[in-house]
Amino acid sequence: MLTIKRFDKNIFKNITAKTLFNIEKKTMKKITLDKYYIEPIYEVFLEKSNFIFLSGKSQIYIALHNEKLIGFILSFYTDPNSADFIPSYVENYKYYISSLYIDPNYQNKGIGTKLLKTLINNLKKTNLDNIYLTVDLNNKNAIDFYLKNNFLIEKKIDKIQLYLLQFKLNN
Predict the structure, then answer these.
(1) How far apart are CA 128 and CA 130, in angstroms?
(2) pLDDT tens column, 97-120
């Protein structure tokens, strides 16, 4: 049975940043974007991700199938005080989805859409106007997924081969 829950580190003590990013790593290997996981670089990224994971400024929703973690969405309010983590193309935006990953064995079953809609419905209760995220220019499946879910391409960032996408919360 599939359940979507808001992550609470006090309840889900066995789920750590490393647990989440292992799902991300497995997914990235499937779509041949594993260039991001050269070990020294990945370890630094994981260490900086822990800051957001534990800061309380993030919203994390997890997908569980029979209590097994199979996916997650990680989003956060951008914070100028953590500029070493926040890429420069994100700093001017208030809210950013940094990760949405589903274990490859569970993809194409609507789980990503359920996670995304859960987050969006929660954020509609805030004073935010927009949500932002970036997608690798070569990740056609992710681009199609977000466009299907009413995100718009705001701009192409050629220098780092990404699209910046935007979702308008108040439409």
Answers:
(1) 6
(2) 988 999 999 999 999 999 999 999
